[in-house]
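Is this the right way to post structure tokens for a design question? Let me know if I should format differently. Anyway, here goes:
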């Protein structure tokens, strides 16, 4: 059974359009290059791996991804624009890329919350250790004052 995901459809249709444009010899080499660039850009956007755009599934992003001016899609290659919008709609209410990003975002938010809790605990420990060190410094200073005023005799060491 053939793969009917929007990404697979975009790849298949893009390849078919490019081959059709090249075999029919319709238009000039510039038109064929534009069709190939748009088809490749569709595949990258549907896969969620943009190279030259923000990755949104819009004509503006498709044009940026294909490194063409937007009017090439809205006036010259309107069939490709309509095809792109059809592929976007076939993904359902939320594109797969957006769903994947939502999952990643939720995971990262949980990780941030965990790191914030850990940071708070470490700050509290730091404050506790700072207080303990201060008390020990005060006690040490007091002991040095007492030691300076008294005579301390060392025990003779055993020779063994």
């Amino acid at each position: 059974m053939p793969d009917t995901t929007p990404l697979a459809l975009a790849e298949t249709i893009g390849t078919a359009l490019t081959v059709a444009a090249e075999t029919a010899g319709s238009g000039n080499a510039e038109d064929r290059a534009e069709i190939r660039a748009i088809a490749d850009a569709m595949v990258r956007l549907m896969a969620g791996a943009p190279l030259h755009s923000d990755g949104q599934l819009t004509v503006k992003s498709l044009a940026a991804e294909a490194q063409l001016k937007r009017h090439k899609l809205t006036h010259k290659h309107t069939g490709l624009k309509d095809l792109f919008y059809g592929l976007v709609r076939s993904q359902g209410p939320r594109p797969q890329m957006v769903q994947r990003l939502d999952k990643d975002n939720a995971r990262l938010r949980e990780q941030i919350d965990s790191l914030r809790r850990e940071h708070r605990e470490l700050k509290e420990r730091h404050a506790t250790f700072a207080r303990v060190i201060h008390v020990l410094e005060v006690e040490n200073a007091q002991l040095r004052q007492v030691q300076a005023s008294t005579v301390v005799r060392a025990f003779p060491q055993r020779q063994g």
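Format looks fine. Someone answered above. Worth noting: The CA atoms of residues 108 and 141 lie 48 Å apart. The helical segments are 6-24, 29-47, 59-66, 70-76, 78-90, 96-149.
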